[in-house]
Specification:
The chain has three helices and two strands, in the order H-E-H-H-E. By secondary structure, the chain is mostly helical. It has a domain of about 40 residues: Roll (Membrane-bound Lytic Murein Transglycosylase D, Chain A), CATH 3.10.350.10. Strands 1-2 form a two-stranded antiparallel sheet. The model has no long low-confidence stretch (mean pLDDT about 85). InterPro entries: LysM, LysM_dom_sf. This is LysM domain-containing protein. Pfam families: LysM.
Length: about 80
């Protein structure tokens, strides 16, 4: 009986390790970004990606619509 328990424990350990490996290597969905160009407004960017201005601000943790040229914004 001890052998059976050992085989069962070994199999359980193999399954656990496989699941853990899968979780570690699971890719998170990549976020779409937009790089702010000269003379571009957040309102225009929000419209381009069908977002509200408030949603765009929240996604990027911004408190103001003022952003520098070259800033990368998450646009989902």
């Amino acid at each position: 009986m001890a052998k059976s328990a050992t085989k069962s424990e070994t199999k359980k350990k193999e399954v656990t390790e496989t699941v853990e490996a899968a979780l570690i290597t699971e890719e998170k969905p990549s976020k779409t970004t937009h790089t702010v160009s000269e003379n571009e407004t957040l309102s225009e960017i929000a419209t381009k990606y069908r977002l509200s201005l408030n949603r765009l601000l929240k996604l990027n943790e911004l408190s103001s619509p003022d952003v520098a040229v070259g800033t990368q914004l998450v646009v989902e």
